[in-house]
From TrEMBL:
Any GO MF annotation of the entry: methyltransferase activity
Keyword entries, A-Z: Methyltransferase, Transferase
Biological process (GO), any one: methylation
Alphabetical list of InterPro entries matching this protein: Alpha/beta_knot_MTases, Ribosomal_eL30-like_sf, rRNA_Methyltransferase, SpoU_MeTrfase, tRNA_m1G_MTases_N
Entry-linked Gene3D superfamilies: 3.30.1330.30, 3.40.1280.10
Protein name: RNA methyltransferase
CDD domains (alphabetical): SpoU-like_rRNA-MTase
PANTHER family from the UniProt entry: RRNA METHYLASE, RRNA METHYLTRANSFERASE 3
Top-level taxon of origin: Bacteria
This protein's record includes keyword Transferase: yes
Organism from which the protein derives: Streptomyces endocoffeicus
Length: 272
């Protein structure tokens, strides 16, 4: 059973995992280096535990202690009970969900391991917006994608905002970070995947005509919001595909486009 510890000093070193959560650059550097990530909200914390992540500690406002009582009784990690005001001073924002947990990261698998048992893979290039990252992972989980691969400069899927937006779906979909770009795509092709680049370019085949759901193995590449896929990524693809647009709309937000494309990739797949 965890120790329930009341803390009333925002500078208490035991709360160091939770300091400055709104400082994106600091947390980007600190969390991977220290092997931790922050799970926010009851559902996300529970999903992280179900996914096998080890809890380092938990930070709760008083009204959440009873809600999380079963977790408190089941984990050996310390649980810090604080006032909402102190939680805000420590983290830098109003923790309206009232529950935070510092979790231990797992070692990331390599791309070859991820690809071995996959048939439907999403590849993200330079997606640095944490909201979009979380939304893409949520769609990937909900629509049956087997794995996600990230270019070296993609945002961290375990950053607090990504985890929160995905509602913990980042814990459900295996992912790996490619070591080089776009050279790392060769490992995808060697594993038997046809690489489709999602682009609004009029020269691209409509995703209906490309019929990706009929392919034995398919990898769908998505680019950053606004800029889309780089020229290098487009040149490395086997085929360009687009989502047909109407009413003069030229493109969708990358999160919305991902959901539409994932459905097209997985529709009719056995077992779904």
């Amino acid at each position: 059973m965890a120790d329930l510890i009341t803390v009333d000093d925002p500078d208490d070193p035991r709360l160091s995992d939770y300091t400055g959560l709104t400082d994106v650059e600091l947390r980007r550097k600190r969390e991977p280096a220290e092997g931790l990530f922050i799970a926010e909200g009851e559902k996300v914390i529970r999903r992280a535990r179900v996914a096998g992540y080890e809890m380092r500690s938990m930070l709760l406002s008083s009204k959440w202690v009873d809600v999380m009582r079963d977790v408190i009784e089941d984990v050996p990690a310390p649980v810090y009970a604080v006032s909402p005001e102190l939680a805000e001073r420590v983290t830098g924002y109003h923790v309206h969900r009232g529950a935070l947990a510092s979790m231990q990261r797992k070692p990331l698998p390599d791309a070859e391991t991820i690809l071995a048992d996959a048939r439907r893979v999403a590849i993200m290039e330079s997606v640095n917006d944490h909201t979009n990252t979380g939304a893409i992972f949520r769609s990937a989980a909900a629509l049956g994608m087997d794995a996600v691969l990230l270019s070296p400069d993609c945002a961290d899927p375990l950053y607090r905002r990504s985890v929160k937006v995905s509602m913990g779906a980042v814990f459900s979909v295996p992912y790996a970070r490619l070591e080089s770009w776009p050279r790392g795509l060769e490992a995808v092709r060697e594993a038997g995947f046809k690489i489709l680049a999602l682009t609004p370019d009029e020269k691209a085949t409509t995703i209906d005509d490309a019929a990706p759901h009929r392919l034995e193995r398919v990898a769908l590449m998505l680019g950053a919001e606004g800029e889309g896929l780089s020229t290098q990524a487009l040149m490395a693809a086997d085929e360009w595909v687009r989502i047909p647009m109407a009413h003069g709309v030229d493109s969708l937000n990358v999160g919305a486009a991902a959901a539409v494309a994932f459905y097209a990739v997985t529709s009719g797949r056995p077992g779904l």
